[in-house]
Amino acid sequence: MKNKKASKLALAGIGVLAAATVVVIGLSPWDKATSVPSPVVATPAPTPPPREAVAFHMQDWDRGWVKYADGMVQTKDGGATWTEVPAAEAALVEAGGPAVSPAAGAQGAEVAPAAIPALLSLETGAEPASLSLPQPTTVLLRGTELPVKQAQFLTPQIGWAMPPSVKPEGRPLLVTVDGGASWSDAMTEDVKAAILGAKTHLLQLQAEAGVYASEADAKAVMSAGWKLIPDKAAPGDAVLVRHKEPGTVTWQGKTYTLQPYGAGYFTYLPIGMSAKPGTYPIGDQTLTVVAKKFETQYLQVTQEMESMKQDTARINADQKLIDAARSKSEPTFLFQGPFVKPIEGILTTPYGYTRYVNGKFDSSHMALDLAAKQGTPIKATNDGIVVLADLLYLTGNSIYIDHGMGLFSQYAHLSELRVKAGDHVKQGDIIGLVGTTGFSTGPHLHFTFWAHNVQVNPDLFFNTTPFRWMKVGK
Ligand SMILES: [Zn+2]
Asked: Which of 17, 251, 340, 363 has minimal Cβ neighbours within 10 Å of its Cβ?
């Protein structure tokens, strides 16, 4: 009974306030100005009274409207500027149309408000429905507490609030970019920067979410502080590391800098052939290296071919070219789709085989040898930038493609090069033809991947991308 009375009183109070405002508006000199000719003698213009606010809605980051007791205004720049809506268009604007293009200077691409909870949930790991947005009834503006008739938040940090009345020269909405801790009645540079930052972050979340195999995978990776994709690997493999923050990873005596991509920071970690089985801390995660057995292969070549490997001057000169080409890589992932096999050849030497040439230990074969007919077209395994396309002594006609973030694919022994350094290639583009140039016993493609200058197993990449190396629950 007591509560009911109290709320009735409160309602009555609002009613009186509203009524008082309406009365003031009723006596407004604005109305007189439309019906009475302007006075000839200049008198100080009376200050127009505040307008009574009824409701507002921000349709997205830029477009919104505020309905007054005596009209409507709209914004197309997030509330920086407001224009009066003609009475005939008010209903249409309130319904969300007509579709107005964002004002000049407004960001083109942005995330729709309806998509925001799901995107933010990727980072928090929570359900989108559990996103709680502030609902303030008062705001603090420059030390003064003001009542709020209505508030709307797009993210837990960024929102608008509508006071019950607005001076004609004032902005109809207040804005906060810190979850309501502080409010502003102007689009200051700080407010603009914070809103742009939030928009950009949502776009980054959206872009990164799309690279994983599923939404569950995206959430598992993006809600973690550190993530190893995958967290179990064998010598010759590579692992993709993601961290929420910038930083570095030290592994096997080398330090790798995490590069920004999407909403996170990444690096490849090559698991060298000398990596010992065991567990290793990476960030707050544990990398497990498991043992792997590689087969042995015996190769017979002519004495003439065998002596090729003794021309160290030419080999060293080539190595300088290769090192220079691989010395820098685009600091982003240059591909979108999966990697493809460059040719459908017969696998004659798998990755990692220990190779003896003419009975003597030669090296580990850190690539795939795919035998195919001379002249078979070779596809780029994925999008990237050609950094070297040249005739080299041992590997013959050779191509290196940068796929970004320190990952390169290499194609050797070609009969013909169809690209040159600097070319941007797409997955499946024909970059050359199968041949047997250089140290080669017959037409085949010697194909490998380099992650931070370590040769890693090509089989990891085919028909997938490193973002899909993890499986939920593994
Ligand atoms: Zn080979």
From this structure: 363
**Cα separation, 349 vs 298, whole angstroms:** 11
Residue 162: enclosing H or E segment and its boundaries? strand 159-162
C-alpha 455 – ligand 1 centre gap (Å): 12
What spacing in Å lies between the alpha carbon of 446 and ligand 1's midpoint?
4
3-state class of 410 per DSSP?
strand
What is the CA(395)–ligand 1 centre distance, in A?
9
Q: Measuring CA to CA, which residue among 111, 80, 58 is closest to residue 191?
A: 80
CA of residue 289 to ligand 1 center, whole Å = 26
> 394 by DSSP, 3-state: which?
coil
Number of domains in the chain: 3
Q: Judge if 301 and 162 occupy the same domain.
A: no
Whole-structure pTM value: 0.82
For 1-19, write each residue's pLDDT tens digit.
344 444 443 433 343 333 3
pLDDT in tens, 89-110: 999 999 887 555 554 444 467 8
Residue 58: name the closest of 195, 181, 168, 240 by CA. Answer: 195
Residue with tokens 């502030």: 134
Distance 235 CA to ligand 1 centre (A): 19
Residue ending a domain, choose from 179, 208, 237: 208
Cα of 349 to ligand 1 centre, how many Å?
Answer: 7
